[in-house]
Amino acid sequence: MSTQQEKTSSKAPNKIIEIVPQATPADIEEPLFEVRKKIHPRAVHGLFARWRWGMVIATQLLFYGLCWLPWNDRQAVLFNIVERKFYLFGLVLWPQDVFYLAILLIISAFALFLFTAVAGRLWCGFACPQTVYTEVFLWVERLFEGDRLARMKLDSAPMSANKAARKGGKVLTWALLSAWTGFTFVGYFTPIHELWDALWRFDLGPWENFWLIFYSGFTYMNAGHMREQVCKYMCPYARFQGVMFDPDTLVITYDAERGEPRGARKKGLDPRSVDKGDCVDCHICVQVCPTGIDIRDGLQYECIGCAACIDACDQVMEKMNYPKGLIRYSTENALSQHWGWQEIMRHVARPRVLIYTAILTVVVGAFLFGLLTKSSLRVNVIRDRGVMGREVEGGKIENVYRLQVMNVSEHYQFYSVKVDGIPGIELAGENVIEMPAESSHIFTFEVRADPEAAKPGPNPIHFEIESLLGDSRTSEKATFLMPR
Question: What is the CA radius of gyration of the chain?
Fold first, then answer.
């Protein structure tokens, strides 16, 4: 028996006391996931809030309105997967144009690199669909439940007729907005007018039903409930953005040298007279943040660069008669070296930004040139391997070719077909073909030449196909076999 147990037994022989060892940090269990605390962003007004709402209005007018715009008796923008045709105003893209998609992805990647190197998560804060729809859904929430304090009070209150009406009105409006968003999204893949008629007849196809429900539910869940969780845990951009930052990247920053030590004081009081910085520790910058972070703790991956904290802090500084800009767009080097805007802008044009800009300019230029010069006529020439060079009437040698012709324009076309490369070579039969708009057909042509006009074996020739309307022309290589 141990000494401690002996002492205990001598005092209370009939009672045994068990000594439990203290828990070590390794024995303490911690939750794998952080428990979410609901965020009630406070409404904010100011320059960046106006810019943010300007982007909301612009992007939603574009999204909801573009699919209803007519063009040449069809939808102006339509990605018709069933017919394998993509319509972009006067441009028709076929599966063979998939390289344009690859170039578009390259442009998007370099644009992301460039904008992030210059101004951080500018896309996230002002144009990302998650930000845009969260802003719209928050506006609806404030419309029914009030601003931050009113919403918090309503959430903590017991259920009542007033609470049920406000919550129900909000949820119903969210559902209608989500449904219309899902319908519009599907309308870019199924002609919107046909989709509208089928919707009222309850005659939607299985894929239309699936994507309508999926996208509507996805919008409702992300913008209505998950909100900042998408930016913090689901979006990969937040995770690798730090790799694209450098000390000269414009980000939202808190000027700790000017703001600390923070604390409350009377309005208009010189903070230096009470040994304080300009920050009054009002926490309004935290209350307006859609991800719930405190920008005063430094740059964090949760910050989406929406600049709501800048507007909020500027309003407080204005009320306190202090200079604005305690929280502002700046750079790490600008804060440490006390640069003004002129010095900051001079360091924007640094080597990596110039390289990104140059590459992006070249790729965009090539992309636009390719689209503007894209021919509406495509031809693929295949020599009939089952019919070798054969002798026909008049002693001439004949080869047979199959021409797969694609009219990718939206007009009925007549094409003339000619062949050259060997003296006296000619087509046997009619050399004019006609094709409906947006169609593809295979035509068979017999080509004849004098045996003395070319050497035995394969001889290069060219097929020249030209629109009689004069808007397209192409030339394709082929081989004419002359018997030995």
Answer: 35
Identify which of 341, 317, 337 has the alpha carbon closest to the alpha carbon of residue 327: 317
73 burial type by CB count under 10 A (0-12 exposed, 13-18 middle, 19+ buried): exposed
Q: What is the pTM of this model?
A: 0.79
Contact status, residue 118 vs residue 250, Cβ threshold 8 Å: yes
Taking the C-alpha atoms of residue 302 and residue 225, their distance in angstroms, rounded to an integer, is: 17
Phi and psi angles of residue 87, each rounded to the nearest 5 degrees, phi first: -110, 125
* Consecutive 10-residue averages of pLDDT for the chain (484 residues): 43 48 56 72 93 94 94 88 84 81 88 88 90 95 93 92 94 96 94 92 89 95 91 82 83 92 88 90 93 90 91 94 93 89 86 90 90 83 81 87 88 90 88 87 90 87 88 87 84
Instruction: Yes or no: say if 136 and 56 are a contact pair by the CB < 8 Å rule.
Output: yes
The structural domains of the chain, with segments of one domain joined by +, span: 246-339, 377-482
DSSP bridge pairs for 478: 461
State which amino acid sits at residue 337. Answer: Q
What does the DSSP 8-state code read for residue 223?
A: I
And the tokens for 390? 């054969």
What is the 8-class DSSP label of residue 451? G
Name the nearest CA neighbour of 409 among 437, 380, 378: 437
What Cα–Cα distance (Å) separates residue 10 from each residue in 2, 6, 18, 19, 128? 12, 6, 15, 16, 75
Q: Is 77 helix (H, G, I), strand (E, B) or coil?
A: strand
What string of DSSP letters covers 362-425?
HHHHHHHHHHHT--SEEEEEEE-TTS-SEE-GGG-EEEEEEEEEEE-SSS-EEEEEEEESSTT-
Residue 120 gets the label, from left (phi > 0), alpha (psi -120 to 50) or beta, of left
Tally of residues, the chain: 484
The fold of the 377-482 domain, in CATH, is Immunoglobulin-like (2.60.40)
Closest CA to 325 of 312, 310, 337: 310
Beta bridge partners of 92: 87
Give me the DSSP letters along 59-80: HHHHHHHHTT-EETTEESEEEE
User: Which tokens sit at 295?
Assistant: 């920008």
End-to-end CA distance of the chain: 113
Cβ proximity of 282 and 246 under 8 Å: no
- DSSP-assigned letter for residue 74: E
Residues 375, 378: Cα–Cα separation, whole Å? 7
Can you tell me the distance from the alpha carbon of 262 to that of 257, in angstroms, rounded to the nearest whole number? 11
